[in-house]
């Protein structure tokens, strides 16, 4: 790793009870200026960071969501040319950071570059996605994509038809690891803190794209991402909330209300098909989606969390 590269990028990691993977995550970016924003971990994460990574800046923040944590970390850095936003359950492989920077230097039109994500078993983790629409939400929540075995018109939301072995201009890329150009961030602004859990990278990529920037998937850099983290029974509901917020913000209240109805049918269907925790999570999401219009649900904020 060259010193010039090290000064070109600052790393931001947001943690919340991250002990299973945070050490490997931070070890993979050792030598780069790194800020960790902890959202009240109770599992010893801050203590481990202080002991094992004394050069890292550790900030303590009220848990107002991932976007808020990203923003706090970004503000603590001294405006490097690039920002690497890295999940606490992800770690860069080999020279992935240098590869991302070199690629970004060659693509000055790109605001966000997403590396190839790999599961811990070495298999590909598909990370290219299409922006939500009512139709695309229907294909996901009503299981149309699965029932049609990935038929492309039903699979756009999940990046169907994308060859993850080649560079690709995407709608959005999964936010487990994002290289963000500081110049683009200064123009478009920070992530929207109104997205508490899920959707912050979707909205951000949409805003970059609307401002004329590109979002690019680059498989020449690889990052391992554990993923599948449990958020308890709130996970499905918070995904629905983020979809409602995105639809209202970018497509209007009527589109958000149509999306609410589609997702309500979908989670009710899944509640019948699943058992155990998944059934409870979908039942909770159905209860919430049934409790008001899209506008009313979004106006309630997070008082019912």
Could you describe the 3D structure shown?
With 305 residues, this protein is an alpha/beta fold. The chain is built from 13 helices and twelve strands. The chain has two domains: 3-127 and 164-225, Spore Coat Polysaccharide Biosynthesis Protein SpsA, Chain A, CATH 3.90.550; 234-299. The strands form two sheets. Strands 1, 2, 3, 4, 5, 6, 7, 9, 11 and 12 form a ten-stranded mixed sheet that branches. A two-stranded antiparallel ribbon has the order 8-10. Helix 2 links the parallel strand 1 (9-15) and strand 2 (33-38). Helix 10 (234-251) packs parallel to helix 12 (276-290). The longest helix is centred in the C-terminal third of the chain and has 21 residues, at 253-273. The chain is globular, with a radius of gyration of 19 Å. The mean pLDDT is 90.
Radius of gyration: 19 Å
Instruction: Sum up the overall morphology in one term.
Output: globular
Q: Uncertain spans, ≥5 residues at pLDDT below 50?
A: none
Total beta strands: 12
Quote the average pLDDT. 90
CATH superfamily annotation of the largest domain? Spore Coat Polysaccharide Biosynthesis Protein SpsA, Chain A
Order of helices and strands: HEHEHEHEEHEEEHHEEEHHEHHHH
With helices defined by DSSP (H or I, 4 residues minimum), what is the helix count?
A: 13
- Integer tally of domains: 2
CATH class of the largest domain: Alpha Beta
Distance between the termini: 44 Å
Q: Which range best describes the helical content: under 10%, 10-25%, 25-40%, 40-55%, 55-70% or over 70%? A: 40-55%
Taken as a percent bin, the fraction of beta residues is 15-25%
Instruction: State the assembly state of the protein chains.
Output: single chain
Counting helices, strands and paired strands, the structural category is alpha/beta
CATH fold descriptor of the largest domain:
Spore Coat Polysaccharide Biosynthesis Protein SpsA, Chain A
What would you say the CATH architecture of the largest domain is? Alpha-Beta Complex
The biggest beta sheet is recorded as:
10 strands, mixed
């Amino acid at each position: 790793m060259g010193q010039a590269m090290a000064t070109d990028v600052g790393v931001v990691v947001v943690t919340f009870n991250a002990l299973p993977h945070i050490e490997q995550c931070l070890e993979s970016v050792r030598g780069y200026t790194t800020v960790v924003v902890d959202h009240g971990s109770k599992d010893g994460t801050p203590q481990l960071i202080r002991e094992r990574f004394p050069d890292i800046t550790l900030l303590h923040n009220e848990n107002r969501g991932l976007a808020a944590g990203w923003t706090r970390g970004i503000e603590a850095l001294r405006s490097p040319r690039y920002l690497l936003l890295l999940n606490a359950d992800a770690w860069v492989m080999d020279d992935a950071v240098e590869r991302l920077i070199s690629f970004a230097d060659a693509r000055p039109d790109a605001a966000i570059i997403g590396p190839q994500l790999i599961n811990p078993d070495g298999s590909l983790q598909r990370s290219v996605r299409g922006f939500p629409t009512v139709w695309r939400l229907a294909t996901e929540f009503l299981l149309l994509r699965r029932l049609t075995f990935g038929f492309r018109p039903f699979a756009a939301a999940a990046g169907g038809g994308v060859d993850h072995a080649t560079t690709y201009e995407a709608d959005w890329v999964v936010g487990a690891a994002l290289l963000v150009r500081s110049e683009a961030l200064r123009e478009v602004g920070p992530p929207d803190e109104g997205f508490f859990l899920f959707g912050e990278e979707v909205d951000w990529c949409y805003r970059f794209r609307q401002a004329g920037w590109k979002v690019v998937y680059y498989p020449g850099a690889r990052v391992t991402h554990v993923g599948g983290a449990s958020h308890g029974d709130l996970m499905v509901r918070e995904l629905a909330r983020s979809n409602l917020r995105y639809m209202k913000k970018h497509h209007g209240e009527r589109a958000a209300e149509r999306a609410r109805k589609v997702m309500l049918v979908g989670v009710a269907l899944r509640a019948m098909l699943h058992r155990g925790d998944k059934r409870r999570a979908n039942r909770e999401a159905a209860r919430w989606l049934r409790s008001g219009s899209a506008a009313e649900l979004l106006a309630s904020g997070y008082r019912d969390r």
